Structures are given as structure tokens and as C-alpha cells.
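Inverse folding, one chain.
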């Protein structure tokens, strides 16, 4: 499975990752990204690619 880590300091709330995630597990809450269901992460790293600030990292465990 994959662990999705977000750096709230770096997140600018642009929503790019929310739109791009094929699993639909990212959302914005109060202008910051939040992971709704980490167990459903596909590990595709699309969120990492689209994030302009490098706020998300994916780790396979
Ligand atoms: S790695 Fe893919 S499935 Fe997982 S949170 Fe990022 S975009 Fe969504
Ligand atoms: S793409 Fe990056 S900066 Fe934009 S909402 Fe997602 S984590 Fe935050």
C-alpha cells in the first residue's frame, strides 16, 4: 500500500491534485489538501507531478 504525506506548510490550496487524482481521495478543507481514504491510493504519483510546490509525497510500504 501507499502512504500519502502532505506538507501543509507547502500546500497553497490550488486544487490541482484534487482534480487530477484518479482515485478521488484528495479534497480541499480550509484551503489545504486532505487525504480522505489513503487505503485507496493507487500510487500513481499524479498528485506529486501536478503539485507546483512539492507538497505531496508518496511512499510505498
Ligand atoms: S498517488 Fe495517485 S491515487 Fe494516490 S493520492 Fe496521488 S494522485 Fe491520488
Ligand atoms: S497541488 Fe499541491 S499546492 Fe495544490 S492543493 Fe494539491 S498539495 Fe496543495
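Residues assigned per position:
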Amino acid at each position: 500500500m501507499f502512504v500519502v504525506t502532505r506538507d501543509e506548510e507547502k500546500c497553497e490550496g490550488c486544487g490541482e491534485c484534487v482534480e487530477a487524482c484518479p482515485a478521488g481521495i484528495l479534497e480541499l478543507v480550509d484551503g489545504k489538501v486532505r487525504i480522505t481514504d489513503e487505503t485507496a491510493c493507487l500510487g500513481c504519483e499524479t498528485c506529486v507531478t501536478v503539485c507546483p510546490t512539492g507538497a505531496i509525497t508518496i511512499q510505498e510500504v
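The chain has one domain: 2-60. The longest helix spans residues 16-20.
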